[in-house]
Amino acid sequence: MTPVLEAVKLGKRYGRHQALMDCDLSIPQGRVIGLVGPNGAGKSTLLNMSCGLIQPTSGTIRVLGAEPAASPAHLAKVGFVAQDTPVYADLSVADHLRMGAKLNPRWDGPLAQRRIAQIGLDPKHKAGRLSGGQRAQLALTIAAAKRPELLIFDEPAAALDPLARAGFLDNLMEFVTDLGASAILSSHALPDVERVCDYLIVLADSRIQVAGDVSGLLADHHRLIGGRQAIGELPAGVEVIRVEHAPSESTAIVRADQRQLAGGPWSVETLDLEELVLAYMTRANQAAAQPAPTVMEAQR
């Protein structure tokens, strides 16, 4: 099956700033993908390239088997809700639906009308008078009524209160199920990602740090607790993501087959998604903070 998103050595540079570097991805269809990382990591850049809004500086990216926005027909397969859930303040809810119908050949008018009624929006109200949660719901409805094969969300619930955010995520999942679509959700709220996503991408320091099925990643990563010497002498093939030392014991986050860790002088514990994400983000931050080698050091 054609990947929903495929990137090979993907990079984007803005002047001297490298926003993305050497990104390799192959995401299967039918997933709800959580894209997480710190501010400035390149998440919005990756999503904007996925929609064809900006072009890569290096490498390639394909969405649903073609270059992003390769044609009007391909553009209609992707629904995008940007970070500020943009709507037109002077247009009514009904005006937004009429505009959606004119601009999108696969527009599902009954779906849009049904969802507007379900969330209690008055078609006569102007978007500028709606609450943040209502604007987000309107933007989500417009994106979904295109009947896309891929929905892309760039921090859509960032400014919403907890109740509005929960309602938005519930409706997002209903749309994904109804449409049989894939979705990419960029978010700083790890509980939101854990709640709705089954595929994870951690982006930090302009690079993909880890990507894969959430269940598989959690099964492959472990917390080890033991003496400093024992943690420093792990078996070959165990990838250490993060280590913290305390006077009495050391803790390591590692990626390994659990059989490699059996019987060692340490205890093995499971991780939650937040701890896994923070471990990779911390490693990337520490690597970025390392000073570049001098010419003399590089030649040694």
From TrEMBL:
Keywords: ATP-binding, Nucleotide-binding, Transport. The keyword NADP does not apply. GO terms for molecular function: ATP binding; ATP hydrolysis activity. It comes from the Bacteria. Residues 5-230 form the ABC transporter domain. Coiled coil: none annotated. Pfam families: ABC_tran. This is ABC transporter ATP-binding protein.
